[in-house]
Amino acid sequence: MASGATTPILATTGVAFVNRWYNTGSPDLKIPVAGGIAALLAAGFSQIPGLAPVVTGIAWLGFVAITIAPVQTPSPLANLQKITGGL
């Protein structure tokens, strides 16, 4: 079971990958590769004493940011509202 910073990083990767695919119509495989590298780096940094909660917090902030902020146009939240009819 994934824990610590791995879960939010993989969730962020999944949201970004699916949103890009939905927006462009073609998958961008650079996103999962970058997400895997980020998860490995985060797992390594979280092994440093005292950094595990910091790395996990940064990873969750990244998840919230990629979901809400228009890093990709339109953002995942805007696409979700479009798909569901405006929640």
Question: What is this structure's SSE topology?
Answer:
Layout: H1 6-24, H2 30-45, H3 52-68, H4 76-84
Helix pairs in contact: 1-2, 1-3
Please describe what this structure looks like.
The chain is mostly helical and 87 residues long. It has helices at residues 6-24, 30-45, 52-68, 76-84. α1 packs parallel to α3. It is elongated and about 45 Å long. The mean pLDDT is 89.
Separation of the first and last Cα atoms = 32 Å
Q: Main beta sheet: strand number and arrangement?
A: none
Mean pLDDT: 89
Classify the beta-strand content into a percent band. under 5%
Helices, by number, come to 4
Helix content, binned percent: over 70%
Describe this protein with a few key phrases.
single chain, 87 residues, mainly alpha, 0% strand
Provide a brief overview of the structure.
This protein has 87 residues and is mainly α. Helix content is 70%, strand content 0%.
